[in-house]
Amino acid sequence: MSVLSTTLLLIVSAAYFVCGCLFQMCETYGLWERRAPLSPEHVATLVNQGYPVVVQPSSRRVFTDAHYGAAGAKLSEDLSAASVVLGVKQVAVKSLLPEKAYFFFSHTLKAQPENMDLLDACMAQNVTLFDYECITEKGRRMVRLVVN
To answer: Which is the most buried residue in 10, 64, 108, 116, by most CB within 10 A?
Structure first.
């Protein structure tokens, strides 16, 4: 399962032009989370268009590290070179890196109290947050589960 639609791939591609390297992080919010923001097919599309994609290894993700490697992604734990970081669920405040652009479900749109520290940390660290809940077209959220 992947959460990026074709429309969102275009948004991510545009963010790359502004920012640089794309990084897909592994999910740490819940042990049950197996979704990924990019499928190996998406990675292959981006790599074939000249975008470098780095994927953080994960044994829980629905797609294997080998699938991402075969699609052209570099596998690495180090996201320091990334400008655009893609995830599914919110990132732990302690894991945020300053001056990066993050795409994930932040659960801050409705001012959920448990995630206000995350929003404050994003502002304090000059993080650009693209919350999937806010990426809509004609009132419909553009991020959806895709079963491959």
So the answer is: 108
Q: What is the pLDDT of residues 22-55, one digit of tens each?
A: 777 777 777 778 888 888 998 998 888 888 899 9
Determine the Cα–Cα distance for residues 54 and 68; give it in Å rounded to an integer: 9
Smallest CA-to-CA distance from 47 within 65, 14, 69, 25 is with 69
Q: For the packed helices 6-19 and 40-48, what is the interaxial angle rounded to 10 degrees?
A: 50
Instruction: Confirm whether 92 is domain-assigned.
Output: yes
Structure confidence by residue, pLDDT tens digits, 63-92:
999 999 999 999 999 988 888 888 888 888
Q: How many domains does the chain have?
A: 1
- Say if CB 103 and CB 84 are below 8 A apart: yes
* Helix, strand or coil, per DSSP, at residue 53: strand
- Name the token pair of 33: 């989370």
CA distance linking residue 146 with residue 4, whole number of Å: 8
Asked whether residue 42 is assigned to any structural domain, the reply reads yes
Residue 2's alpha-carbon distances to 98, 106, 113, 144, in angstroms, are: 26, 17, 28, 8
Are the C-beta atoms of 2 and 36 separated by less than 8 Å? yes
Domain-embedded: residue 80: yes
Contact, 133 vs 105, CB < 8 A? yes
